[in-house]
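This section describes the prediction task in plain terms. A model, or a person checking by hand, is given the sequence of a single protein chain and must write out its three-dimensional structure as a string of tokens. No templates, partner chains or ligands are provided. The sample shown here is typical of the held-out split.
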Amino acid sequence: MTRGIYDPSSDGGASNDTEQLRAWCTIDLDAVRHNVAVLHARAGVPVLPMVKADAYGLGAPAIAHALTSLGETVWALGVATPAEATALRAGGIQSRLVCTSPVLPGELPELAAARCRPALHRADDIVRWQQLAPSVPWHLAIDTGMHRAGVSWRDVAALRAVVAAHPPEGVFTHFHSAERSDGSRERQEARFTDALTQLALADGTLRHADNSWGVLARAGTPWDLVRPGFALYAGPAADPALHPVLHVQARIVDLRDVEPGDTVSYGATWTATRAARVATIGLGYGDGLRRALGGRASLRLHGRSVPVIGHITMDLTMLDVTDVPCGLGDVVTVLGNDGHGGSVPLETLAAAGALSPYELLTGWRLRLPRVYRP
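The expected answer:
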């Protein structure tokens, strides 16, 4: 049941039996497929979904198999490290892989062994790649303003000769603020277009730039591929047309009645102002429910909202359930749909703790068993 829950390359102890679990994540693979279809239709070109960081914490092997079942809609899968590529190959994934983050020269052999296309931008690395893996294509990374990785758009002319001698399969850039209507995406695209002109790449070289927010910002992309990540897994937190993928539940493992003046959890930050009932659920910040949400977030129990009280602890979280009849083993919805027509949306939960939805989404990786549906 708990096999592999500490191993991001495993299925996280995936099971379809939740009766004996104190807490678990349910991942809706049909929702992932739906979200790919929506983004593909909006972009009008094939999709290069990002499955880095264990598919944003949802389990890269299961997500990758669900994505590769979509045929040529999914052109390749995106990773961020050689180890991620190696793990996908070990999990039976045979589709194209692209490592979009820069790697050290010493990591190139692992990418070659995994038949994973690297993102390169240094001349020496380009030449070495042709020696290591002449049959595995590569992609040229161009920095157009993110100032994180890739050759600067100001300096691409220096790579013209090596790129001509060893043509890339693709060339890409990354938007730093595609979700904003501030003109930055347009400026980056103009720089990207200018860099492509300077390089005089061969016809058919794949060009890609749009991340999740780039796809959602407009109908149709001018490029050949799109690289969504967050939108695939966050669902409505990115766009109402997308479906929620991740649902987190936990059972009540203890109940107690408290009197006015009694305090709850470390630091005694919550004090009862009336006779109250406190439920303890078997999930804490060691599972991904961030400590910043203590005293700020509300979860769902039997179709009703219940507040988190006191500090969230590593393994346990306390709720005020005074007004909601409940018993040991009853299920609390921490994130996602509650089965009663209500939900705890990702963006709402993140906002309660002043957290990034990205951080909250990827944070359920350590020990929660995963249940994949269908």
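For orientation: The two ends are 18 Å apart (CA to CA).
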